[in-house]
Design goal:
The chain is α/β, with parallel strands linked by helices. It has eleven helices and 20 strands. Helix 10 runs parallel beside helix 11.
């Protein structure tokens, strides 16, 4: 979330007044520098939320800075977000673009951050964003695109990567605007990642329904792969999904407590095995029960209880697995990195697929069971003969599950299924995701 100075806690930092100041809520600028240095010493990158899309009307901020519309448009039809009560930067002015681009460079240069997530990019790209007919002005070509904002975003990303080639620039962009993650020299916006809002909505809608009805909504799980390679996507479960009566992740899940935790573990494990980079919001990593509140601490006391420890252990182990298995990340943006085995078993709400990477040619087999039904003998086709070690099981006792599994792995048998000559006959625990890795024969 944004670290820039802001006057109102309830804005969560998204209504910035101090563009060149880390908020004093957490200490001094030098202490923030030390925080970033300590994170780097522990191998942790720091990504800031950056908000160049709008600013508040506070008199001590940029609004009417010199008594006139210096930073914002004068016409409210292109200069004001009425629903948000904020003003929109006049991106057509060189001075305004320079102010923002210099601010972007400042955070990298002075504080050595590793990346940015640009908030509300869709609101910048469209002149009619959240505006009824008659309350917006078309561009010079008669369209609804904000051409000046496009130019600004391209300029910002071009300058960022020119000075900091290894940076991350992530767009929170929720529409089908093309080429968000294409380079600026070919007409793209120049980001290297885009939030996959469609995946987030589909998955949360799917997991919130009773597992019996999931057989009628298999498309919610599988649809994301059909467009996965149109952009470089980041899978995001964000703050927007755990506030305003939406419940935190754990309490979005149906059923009793055991099923809530099992569903949460299954969703997180599927997320880690699905193509795309990952981000979750604070508290999801241990099963926070209350909605997030800007004025409250997280419920760290829940870690005294085993089910919550289990979710924490799961996320910890998923991160280690992800780091150690290049198949889970190396070919995220290449169709070679993902292949369905079976996505059509709707009656059981089971999916199976492969993750692979092209250098070592190591393949992982992922099987997800999104119902509480326990399958003692479930067959899936696999491409290679031999032994498949079970390297992860979200139903393990360490995670608070029922500890049903495959006794370390399974040997293939000759059985033609899913267009393969070899098959695994595996145990599928309830509400779980299992991961298998082919073991090459010893020479």
């Amino acid at each position: 979330m944004p670290i820039s100075e802001h006057p109102f806690d309830g804005s969560w930092g998204y209504q910035v007044t101090g563009w060149y100041a880390p908020t004093s809520r957490y200490g001094t600028p030098n202490e923030f520098k030390e925080f970033v240095n300590r994170c780097h010493a522990e191998g942790i990158g720091v990504i800031l939320d950056w908000v160049p899309g709008h600013f508040p009307k506070d008199k001590h901020g940029l609004a009417f800075f010199d008594g006139c519309h210096l930073y914002e448009h004068g016409d409210p039809r292109i200069g004001e977000h009425k629903e948000w009560g904020t003003l929109i930067f006049n991106y057509s002015r060189n001075e305004v673009r320079n102010f923002l681009v210099a601010n972007l460079v400042y955070w990298f240069e002075e504080f050595h951050i590793d990346g940015i997530r640009v908030d509300a990019v869709a609101s910048m790209l469209y002149r009619d964003y959240l505006r009824p007919e008659g309350e917006w002005i078309p561009n010079e070509n008669g369209g609804n695109e904000n051409l000046e904002a496009v130019k600004f975003l391209q300029q910002a990303n071009h300058v960022l990567f020119q000075h900091f080639p290894g940076a991350l620039s992530i767009a929170e962009e929720s529409t089908t605007w093309p080429m968000v993650t294409e380079p600026t020299n070919v007409g793209g916006l120049g980001f290297n990642l885009k939030w996959n809002m469609g995946w987030m909505h589909d998955m949360l809608d799917y997991f919130e329904i009773d597992p019996w009805f999931r057989q009628f909504h298999q498309n919610s799980v599988t649809f994301s792969i059909t467009y996965n390679y149109t952009e470089n996507f980041m899978l995001a479960l964000s703050h927007d999904e755990v506030v305003h009566g939406k419940s935190h992740l754990l309490h979005k899940m149906p059923g009793d407590d055991w099923k809530k935790f099992a569903n949460t573990r299954a969703l997180l494990t599927y997320m880690w095995t699905h193509p795309g980079k990952k981000t979750i919001f604070m508290g999801m990593e241990f099963g926070q029960r209350q909605e997030w509140n800007v004025w409250d601490d997280l419920q760290w006391e829940l870690l005294e209880f085993e089910p919550h420890k289990g979710v924490r252990n799961l996320v910890d182990d998923l991160n280690k697995l992800y780091k150690n298995e290049p198949s889970l990340w190396k070919n995220d943006f290449d169709p070679y990195g993902f292949q369905w085995i079976d996505c059509d078993d709707t009656s059981n709400s089971v999916i199976s697929f492969m993750r692979r990477e092209n250098e070592s040619n190591e393949w992982l087999i992922v099987v997800a069971n999104f119902t509480p039904n326990f399958h003692e003998s479930y067959k899936i086709g696999v491409p290679l003969e031999g032994f498949y070690k079970e390297i992860f099981n979200s139903d393990g006792s360490r995670y608070g599950g029922s500890n049903k599994g495959n006794m370390g792995g399974k040997e293939t048998e000759k059985y033609n299924i899913h267009n393969y000559e070899n098959a695994l006959e595996i145990v599928l625990p309830p509400l779980s995701v299992s991961i298998f890795k082919h073991q090459p024969k010893k020479k």
